[in-house]
């Protein structure tokens, strides 16, 4: 997750990209620390497009906005952070993504500073 105004990156490791893991991550890692956002923007990944996400977001008063498919500029800030995070994780893993979950917090901090 990337804060729209500050560009601050928040990450949390999950075994699989699912709607349930997205919700759990938002609840356990983001909302309690930063409060409930008015809106959230995401790509059209299957873990974001499930009705479970829409129901959860509506229940929390969050407007969920989906980026235009195949239009990278719409998600520029997020894509930039994803690229920096992947590059940093690979460097910390000795050229591979081995132990990415161990290095995630350090890599996130490095991208944020």
TrEMBL record:
Listed InterPro entries: Integrase_cat-core (IPR001584), Retrovirus_Pol_polyprotein (IPR050951), RNaseH-like_sf (IPR012337), RNaseH_sf (IPR036397)
Highest rank taxon of the organism: Eukaryota
Gene3D superfamilies xref list: Ribonuclease H-like superfamily/Ribonuclease H
GO MF annotation list: nucleic acid binding
GO biological process: DNA integration
Recorded coiled-coil stretches: none
Protein name, per record: Integrase catalytic domain-containing protein
Species this protein is from: Hirundo rustica rustica
